[in-house]
Amino acid sequence: MKTPEQKFLDFTGYDKVKTYEQNIQLPSTMIHIGNAYEISYQSNKFDGKMRNYVHPLKKYGSVLIDPKGKLIVITGLNLSITKRGLTG
């Protein structure tokens, strides 16, 4: 089974990836603020040129925030990173 780093390298075509470790504590209470129907982001994957990417979701996910408004989480999705990109 491939590691997340290996999947990212396959996805982007990069030779190496810089990883960061961050301790994230999920609060016991989250606030549902809506549903996610797509994920969009900007990346310079593949050729180093910044582009916008939009991934429609087959099933919507729940968008939750912590009570302090510092953390956003999307739940209820089954996402994968493949050579084609983000799918699910």
Kindly report the spatial arrangement of strands forming the biggest sheet.
1-2-3
Annotation, overall tally of beta strands: 5
Content of β-strand:
35-45%
Mean pLDDT: 86
For the largest beta-sheet, the strand count, sense and barrel status come to: 3 strands, antiparallel
- What ranges have pLDDT less than 50 throughout 5 or more consecutive residues? none
The number of helical elements comes to 1
Specify Rg, calculated over alpha carbons.
15 Å
Shape summary: globular
Separation of the first and last Cα atoms: 19 Å
What fraction, in percent, of the residue positions are helical?
10-25%
Please state the structural category: mainly beta
**Any idea how many domains?**
1
- Listing every helix as H and every strand as E from the N terminus to the C terminus, the arrangement reads HEEEEE
Q: Can you describe this structure in just a few lines?
A:
By secondary structure, the protein is mainly beta. The chain contains 1 helix and 5 strands; from the N terminus they run H-E-E-E-E-E.
What is the topology?
Blueprint: H1 4-12, E1 31-43, E2 51-65, E3 72-75, E4 80-82, E5 85-87
Antiparallel strand pairs: 1-2, 2-3, 4-5
Quick tags:
88 residues, mainly beta, three-stranded antiparallel sheet, 1 helix, 43% strand, globular
Descriptive account of the structure:
The protein has 88 residues and is mainly beta. It has one domain (4-87). It is built from 1 helix and 5 strands. The strands form 2 sheets. The protein has a 3-stranded antiparallel sheet, with no helix packed on it. It has a two-stranded antiparallel ribbon with strand order 4-5. A hairpin with a 2-residue loop joins strand 4 (80-82) and strand 5.
